[in-house]
Amino acid sequence: MSRTLKLYKLQTIDTDIDRRRIMLIKIGKLLEGNSDVANAKAKRDEAADALKAVEKQRDDIRHERQQQEAKRTASDKRLYSGNVKDPKEMQDLQAQIQSIGSHLETLEERQLFVMEEIDTAKDAADAAQAAFEKVRDSYATEQSKLTAKKQSLESDVEKLRIARVAAAKALPSEDKDRYLKLRKLKKGVAVSKIENGACNACGTSLASGALQKVRSSSDISNCPTCGRIMHTG
Ligand SMILES: [Zn+2]
Questions:
Q1: pTM (2 decimals)?
Q2: Which residues does residue 222 pair with via DSSP β-bridges, in sequence order?
Q3: Helix and strand totals (H; E) in the chain
Q4: CA angle 18-21-25, nearest 5°?
Q5: What digits encode the pLDDT tens for the residues 177-188?
Q6: For residue 182, how far is its CA from the centre of ligand 1 (angstroms)?
Q7: Please, are residues 193 and 228 in contact by the beta-carbon 8 Å criterion?
Q8: Residue 228 CA, ligand 1 centroid: distance in Å
Q9: Bridge partners, 191 (sequence order)
Q10: Which of 14, 62, 77, 94 is most buried, taking the most CB atoms under 10 A from its CB?
Q11: How far, in Å, is the centroid of ligand 1 from the Cα of 216?
């Protein structure tokens, strides 16, 4: 195996590892959380609270109606008990019964109105709950897919690391140092394959004479434009 082929093999493995690491970082961020779920949950809670508020209004009205009805019954009872002799008290009782009656009518109207509001709030709460469940379920599906992808990438990286140890061992230390320095300088790509007479990394075409020289030499040559180690394959 030529020197540059050994370097190229190491480069291929490192590139494969780099790609997977980038994907793992992206997946990690996606797994951290999803604001759509939190938003849908907040809307669901808001709608549920709104429903509870109008239901409380209905209960309050019901309670007040019961109290007023009990009061009217007591006044009726007193009025027709035969014990009230004083005309002033009789008048007062009649006025009170009448006033309670009209108050009860108002309460009944308010209750009807609140019942309509409950229907509307219930529909909104049901819709918000359904929307939340949909978002939550799709997020759960996405999460399980992402988790599976993450595990597969991690297992790839593990295998690649083992292969990398072997590929790095096969290199003379001088070549390895050169490779590592260049990799730092050249955004992770230290070795470029020359295909159809051009550098794969930067696209520079090499004159056939120069290419022939690179091929025949046992020395390592760098691309005249991007400076990467050339592997003619
Ligand atoms: Zn180049």
A1: 0.70
A2: 229
A3: 5, 3
A4: 140
A5: 999 999 999 999
A6: 12
A7: no
A8: 6
A9: 229
A10: 14
A11: 19
